[in-house]
Design brief:
The structure holds two protein chains of two kinds.
Chain A: H1 2-16, H2 18-49, H3 54-59, H4 71-79, H5 82-113, H6 119-128, H7 138-147, H8 158-178, H9 183-190, H10 195-216
Chain B: H1 10-38, E1 41-43, E2 49-51, H2 55-61, H3 64-96, H4 103-111, H5 118-129, H6 135-142, H7 159-184, H8 188-196, H9 201-212, H10 214-229, H11 233-238, H12 250-259, H13 264-297
Antiparallel strand pairs in B: 1-2
Helix pairs in contact in B: 1-13, 2-13, 3-7, 3-10, 4-7, 10-13, 12-13
Classes of the chains: A mainly alpha, B mainly alpha.
Amino acid sequence: MNKNETRTNQVKFETTNKVRTLTATIISNFILILFSFTCVFPIIWVLYSSFKTQAEFMLNPVGLPSRLNFANYFQVLTQTNMDLYMLNSFRNTVLAVLGILLLSFISCYFLSRFRFKGRNFLYNYFVIGMLIPLHALLVPLYIQFKNSHLSNHWYTLLFPYIAFGLPIAIVLVESYIASIPRELEEAAAIDGSSFSRTLFGIVLPVTTPNSSYGSYHPVF
Amino acid sequence: MKKSALHPKSGTILAYMLPTFLIYTFVVIVPIISAIRLSFYNWSGGKKITYIGLNNYVALLKDNVFWQSFRNNITITVLCFIGQIGLAFILASFLQTRMIKWKSFHRIVAYFPATISAVVVGFVWSFVYNYDYGLINTVLGILNLSKWAKPWLDNPDSIMYAVSIHIIWQYIGFYMVIILAAMASIEKSIYEMAEIDGASGFQKAISITLPMIKNTLAVTVMLCISGNMKIFDHIYTMTGGGPGNSSMVMALDVYKTTFIKSQYGYASAMSVGILVLSMLLIFITRIPTMSWRKESDD
């Protein structure tokens, strides 16, 4: 119904301004394609350059490789511990994203749904973490982790990843949860769902797209 | 229907909030407090640690490198504000119109750089800017414009622009997706009414879209400022603060003071300085936002 309406509007619009619209369409599409192209090209350039030999790259940095040359990859795999590094990055990323997702979702739910005492203080308390670079706190952080025997484990890095990823996730998810209608939880409660079940079974799936967006941005 | 299903006891709230609160306090807030404590001491890592009161802060106020880094941070923030939020708004408005084909393709591709590690982006762009075999100079050579080729990363006057461009490039899609999500929640009938009244695309963007998404824009401005005041990886991998100190930023300055000069006390004072300056900037940008909030409450 709505689609038909826009369709008829579109037809009317096009018949009156056909030429003007066509030019505008071409220009705006062109701008966006150009923009999208610049977004991926540097990465594609590095990707296909990885198949070139050193001499080939020096000779023509932009051109495509003459043939697929996997020597660089063999070198990386045999001479470094890249497989181990990738595994570590993968594990840290997955666990940190899950941690940020869950923790930020839970705290955001309470921050945006309930007006308890100290709510604004708590929100600002979380947001302050966004203002200080991790690199400026490395020394106190290191001393603290060392004293509490948390350093030098495989899970050590997860704590700073999660904690420093929380502020951005909280800002993004909190405003999103505020936009979810309250009726959703009321309906669940009428059907007899307990509080925890509503939280994880109803509200969490609704916020997942937004939460995951907020969570994986700061990691890697 | 159980009452507790909608209004949990305060004990339940506390139990749910506690893990987040504890991890966050332990990893972020306690180090900030120990940084504040350390900033009153002269300490270079050994056993000898002497209380020197406010001397670190007095030295910080006279530190030219720190204030130059602060100016650089401001430059990056302003350029990124224009380049990221401004361009993202324009591109998102384009994507809202009916003319554009392959909308989801553009959305995915624009967001792609934001998913890459900042370190990788820094290295890729230092290849792009490289004088001998970089992308820009090679393309200029192909177009017979070799006289425009420059050592992009060695010119102290333009280094901040070169550095800002790749930060803008990386995060433009991030802001575009946020702005698009806000635009999607505006009712279509408002636009249709404006079209009947003869509003042009530009007028629709300025008088309808902009006021309708101002709360989201306030969030993006806050993210932009906080993100750019603590920018580190991009600069560290690309220029390392050079040439000279011309592209030094505050986080990098702290990092160098900590790990190269080993002045832990002074570096802590600098961290506190970053925190205070960022809070000040956020507070300044919050003032117009507060009046918006009041309007929307009425």
